[in-house]
Every structure is written in C-alpha cells, then in structure tokens.
Amino acid sequence: MELVNKLMKQAVSENIFPGGVLLVFWEDSIIFFKAYGYANIFSKRRMDEDTIFDLASLTKPLATTLAIMILIQQHRLDLEQDIGSVLPQFDKTEKSNIKISHLLYHNSGLPDYRPYYRKLRKLPIDTRIFVLRDLLVKEPLLHPIGQKVLYSDIGFMILRWVVESVSGSRLDQFVYEKIYRPLKIENLFFIDLDSERRNGKFAATELCPWRNILLEGAVHDDNAYVMGGIEGHAGLFGTANDVNILLSELLAAFNDRSLIHVFQKDLVNKFFERQEDSGRALGFDTPSLFDSNCGNYFSKKSIGHLGFTGTSFWMDLERSVIVLLLTNRIHPSRDNLKIKVFRSKLHDTVLKNIQMKNKN
C-alpha cells in the first residue's frame, strides 16, 4: 500500500486537507490504518489514529438509518408507513402520505436544507425542539412525493422525530443502547451541549463566523448545533476504528456471518439494495454512474456516504472491502473543495492495490 501512503502524504502537502485518517478493511481484517497531518493547524497538534472526527452527514446512515432499522426489526415501524400515521402533527397536511422509505431514499419531495438555526438560536434552548418541529410540519414540499431525488437534511430531521416518537428515547440514547453498546463501541457518540463530554482528541473544523470560535468538540452543522448537538442529519462524532467496527458488523450481517446479531441479515440486505428510480439505497448512497467519488473500481453492489466536514466511507459488498477516509478538510474554512477529485483517485489506488494482492 505504498502508493496509498504516498497519496495521503501528498494530499496533506498540497493542502487538500490539514490532516486525515485512512482505514482500509478487507476480508475480516484491517490491512491499512494510518494518520496524517494536523488535527489542529493553529496548535500544531498532530492527527493520530484515535482522533475523534465530526462525522457530519455520516450521522444519517450510521445513526438515524440504523435506528429506523432496529425499530423495524422490533416490529414497531414499517418502511411503507406514512409519517401521518406515526406523527399525528403531519396528518391532514400535504406531507402526511410521505412514507418512511421516501425519507430514506431522499425522494420525499422535501427541500434539501433550510437555515432554521437563524431563528432557533434566538430562542431558549428548551423551546427549540418544539419550534423546529412546527417548522418541519409547515415546510412546503418542493416536488410531488416519490417523484424526484433531492438529498435532504430536513427528511432526516423528521426521521429523528419518528425514532424518538416510536421508541420513547432520544436518538443518541437509542442508538447507544441498541447498537453501539452491544457492539462495545465507545467512541461513536453525539455531544450533548448540556453535558460534560467535551474532552478528547478532536479534529478541529471551521472558524465559525456566527459563533466566533474555532470548532473543536462541538458540532459544525448549524442546525444540529442549535438543537443541542443532536439531530437526525448531523451531530455524530467518532474515531475511524469505531466507525469501522460498526461498518464491519453490518458487512458481517449482510454476509450472514455475524456473531452478535444486532442486525438481521434480510433487513440489512433490503437496506443495502440500490433502488433504480432513486439511485440510492435506504439511508445510504450508491456509486454514481459517472464521476463517482468512490472511483471506478467499486462494484455496483457498493454503499457509502459523504460528510461535509471531509468524512466518507465506501463499502464494496462483493469484495468485502471498506475504505474509510476521515479528514478535517473544512479546517479552517469550508471553501477548500479539493477533496472531491482526491477521493476518487484515492479509492482507485486502494482498490487497484487490493486487486493486485488478490492475484498474488
């Protein structure tokens, strides 16, 4: 994997990101795991393998989607259920017939994003959830339900509400109790801004213009931040190793080789299926037909996701390969977009290396 190592070093030297951690898992074992560059460019703190990253939108597949999966396993929810039947507040609105599956496929007709934080940050913290949920109920659809794919944070805010309404637990507590704890995952967590859990080796993100601070151990996403650090679309933090434990357990369940059985094989298979209409799987992304950020060699039976902060994972279900790239590319500014081209180049280099190992 010398070429992979060289590519990561080059990325740091060319300011594609200040620092990063790359982990490659193949056929039941980690074959590459290394840290590069700086976790904080101002203090010159080095990145290391157990640096904790703001995972940003990896929250969607690794927390909210899996919470929905568990509720379906428990027969407390169904993919074809309308949200109007789960959340009475949506009944008799234009959104009442949106199904859980529409929210997971991002074809609900909802907008992609709204800067709710601008209104919410002016309110007392304990009233914000009620105001946000009123805004979600009133948010107009942009498209007819099921007809157009538009990647939506708002859909996953509603899914958080679904999880909490059905389970009776807050999203972060539910995923910890039902998923992370059974898998002995300690470093995959939300940071409740009311709690004391602010210690740890965090990768710094942006100099936030409206908070007037360098974000380090506080969620970057504005809407998640004003909601106390916990939302369905963002807020999850974690290390590369613990994200890999979770992903490799999903892969084991998919292959019917799990020893822990947190996830049911048939349901995992259903969630990992690419829907041709949407080009997505349930809560997960799949490789684009052209110019995919996972490169040219991941099979069609692959799933993954990106996070705005510079995080990503791709899992090839045919080859049992996981490539996990965690970076702080928005440190100190989100204007750095160089990672887009780099991602596909990195994935191609990793997969070529694995193919060569396979031949030998």
Beta strands, count: 11
Q: Taking Cα atoms only, what radius of gyration do you get, to the nearest Å?
A: 20 Å
Q: Could you describe the largest sheet, including whether it forms a barrel?
A: 6 strands, antiparallel
Structural class: alpha+beta
Give the integer mean of the pLDDT values: 96
Order of the strands making up the biggest sheet: 3-2-1-11-10-9
Number of helices: 12
Distance between the termini: 14 Å
In the predicted model, the low-confidence regions spanning at least 5 consecutive residues are: none
Overall 3D shape:
globular
Written as H for each helix and E for each strand, in order along the chain, the element string is HEEEEHHHHHHHEEEHEHHEEEH
How much helicity do the residues have? 25-40%
Beta-strand content: 5-15%
Q: Short summary of the structure?
A:
The chain has 360 residues and is α+β, with helices and mostly antiparallel strands.
Structure description:
This protein is α+β, with helices and mostly antiparallel strands. It has a domain at 65-172. Helices cover 35% and strands 15% of the residues. The protein is built from twelve helices and eleven strands. A six-stranded antiparallel β-sheet has the order 3-2-1-11-10-9, sandwiched between helices. Strand 9 and strand 10 (311-316) form a beta hairpin. Helix 1 (2-13) runs antiparallel to helix 12, helix 2 packs parallel to helix 7 (153-167) and helix 2 (59-73) packs across helix 8 (171-180). The chain is globular, with a radius of gyration of 20 Å.
